[in-house]
Amino acid sequence: MAVFLFLVRKQTFMFRFFLLVFAFFFSFSAHAVKISYVSGDREAILAETEFDLAYDNREMKVGAFRTEEEFIRYERVRLSQQQSMQRADEWEKGWRANFETTYRPKFETLINKRENIHVEEGNQNARYRLILKTTFIEPGFNVGIAKKPAYISVQFIFVERENPSKEIARFQATRVPGSDGVGFDFAVGQRVGEAYGKTGKMMAAYFGKKKK
After folding, report:
1. Is 123 inside any structural domain?
2. What residue spans of 83-167 are helical by DSSP H?
3. How many domains does the chain fold into?
């Protein structure tokens, strides 16, 4: 009898577990993300292929925090109390470095995959500059038995390269998900990096689609 009850409980647990997994992936895939036009001269931008590139994270929110600095302060206190000050320093250094070492390279690699658009910092051949403004990052988590994908929200602000105060057009993408399809994205840099890569890929596809 005890063995029977154990097997029933085990099967019930497995059923609930797979149900949760299925619900997660269903909601994840059902969330349609796209580039949307906001304002300005869209046709002038789509007529170009070469763009200068800059980044702006100054007004970025992170998770439930109003600013990135609030989030960093919270994580530093948590890690210093739960682990050590050295661990807090290492985490902050890694968080800040991810933008240069992971997120930007991911975005640039995938937006430049197609021939219809080429973006590069310091691009002297470009008439316009693309400013990728990140407005929100959800870092997500992955602890093995449970996970939540990262998300980013960005604005694509196109300005004159020689006169950056003159905005030409603006586009946006909201809650672009980032997650390793295999499930090994335990590091926040990997999850958020996937979101930046997808953002670049989406913008390249948008240019290709609108030019046809």
Report:
1. yes
2. 85-98, 104-111
3. 2
Instruction: Establish if 97 belongs to a structural domain.
Output: no
Domain residues for the domain of 8 are 1-30
- pLDDT in the model for residue 76: 98
d(CA 193, CA 139): 10
Residue 48 has pLDDT above 80, yes or no: yes
Pick the more confident residue, 4 or 180: 180
Q: Which residues pair with 21 in a beta bridge?
A: none
pLDDT score at 130: 98
Phi then psi dihedrals of residue 183, to 5 deg: 100, 15
Gap between the Cα atoms of 181 and 194, Å rounded? 10
Nearest one of 178, 212, 208 to 112, comparing CA atoms:
208
Q: Is residue 86 in some structural domain?
A: no
Supply the pLDDT for residue 147. Answer: 82
Match 């997660």 to its residue by tokens.
Answer: 24
Q: How far apart are CA 150 and CA 167, in angstroms?
A: 30
Backbone angles phi, psi at 206, to 5 degrees: -60, -45
pLDDT in tens, 131-165: 999 999 999 988 777 888 899 999 999 999 999 99
